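A.,

Following up on our hallway conversation. Structure tokens first:
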């Protein structure tokens, strides 16, 4: 029987690759997506497609409302998504998002009896979010083992971030090797209801650059 793992699955390129890596490592993957009030909720339909295509044994969608606290262009329609590079941490940063998402994954993992959690954060070709750095992943793993009954009773949780130190082109090549169909994914911060990308936001720029550097055709649908 395969070892269970929880995999955070947004519906984007990185999380799809992470799911494929977890599957290739022999885990029975329980995919977790979160409807947190993101304006690009077409990614959730993409997550369902990816979970099915990559053989997740379960796909759960949990709804929370990070829009209630605001502070991000991804949850507040009054804040525009930048279409040009900006200095510092961009307004597309969602306060505490990865902390909240990992906490939900941790809770489900404890219920499932799983010790392994996969997250597709990346600290190389990324937007500069503080909750995508190695120090954050390491700190959350320590928290997971302090804050749970399972951790206190001796089952050690492991937070896997297999993309952490990879460039986007390397991520794409690995995903292609593992059979990921990137046409199923949605990365754009302001994708329309059909999942078509704007081609101008930070996520679109990083994605297009990755495919170009990988020397592979970009299957993104643009509006």
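Then the amino acids I'd put at each of the 223 positions:
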């Amino acid at each position: 029987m395969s070892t269970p793992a929880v995999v955070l699955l947004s519906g984007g390129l990185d999380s799809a690759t992470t799911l494929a890596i977890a599957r290739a490592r022999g885990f029975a993957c329980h995919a977790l997506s979160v409807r947190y009030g993101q304006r690009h909720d077409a990614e959730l339909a993409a997550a369902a497609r990816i979970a099915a295509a990559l053989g997740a044994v379960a796909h759960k969608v949990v709804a929370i409302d990070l829009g209630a606290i605001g502070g991000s262009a991804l949850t507040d329609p009054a804040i525009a998504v930048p279409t040009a590079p900006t200095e510092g941490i961009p307004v597309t940063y969602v306060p505490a998002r990865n902390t909240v998402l990992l906490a939900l994954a941790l809770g489900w993992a404890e219920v499932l009896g799983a010790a392994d959690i996969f997250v597709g954060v990346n600290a190389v070709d990324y937007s500069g979010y503080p909750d995508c750095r190695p120090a954050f992943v390491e700190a959350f793993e320590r928290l997971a083992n302090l804050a749970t009954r399972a951790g206190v009773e001796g089952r050690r949780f492991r937070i896997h971030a297999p993309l952490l130190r990879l460039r986007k082109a390397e991520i794409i090549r690995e995903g292609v090797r593992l059979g990921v169909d990137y046409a199923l994914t949605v990365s754009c911060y302001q994708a329309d209801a059909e999942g078509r990308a704007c081609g101008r936001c930070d996520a679109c720029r990083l994605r297009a650059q990755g495919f170009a550097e990988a020397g592979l055709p970009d299957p993104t649908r643009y509006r």
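The chain has one domain: 4-214. Curious whether your intuition agrees with the design.

B.
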